Amino acid sequence: MPLSEHEQRLLEQIERALVDDDPKFASSVRTGDRRLKARRRLQIGAALVVVGFAVLVGGAVAESVILGVLGFLVAFAGAALAVLNYKVATGAVESGPAPAGGRGPAGPARAGRGNRGGRQPLKNRLEERFRRRYDQ
Hints:
This protein has 136 residues and is an all-alpha fold. It has five helices and no strands. Residues 94-136 are annotated as: Disordered. The chain crosses the membrane at residues 42-60, 66-86.
């Protein structure tokens, strides 16, 4: 839904006031989409992995341990860069606690599902599943 002229003017006034009050914050907000930057880092990471493996193979062909280790380190750094930016780059949303009017089953049927931060340890989940099956 497009903004009306009045709303656009108000938004422009708010933006100008923000730039006047805190120009550093305003420039950091205006710099662009986080996903674009994360995608770029993901692509750089993938390229580093390819280059690292090429250097690793080149080191093996040239029988150079230093070149092989350097290739491994470059590939590892690229993989780390790609993994750390994957979630933001793909737009995957972390599944947090469900809203009050959330969909889907709740309670024990959903135990063990969700984000990793609030997950029960594997042992507890397995024990809970066993108890549910045993009680049926």
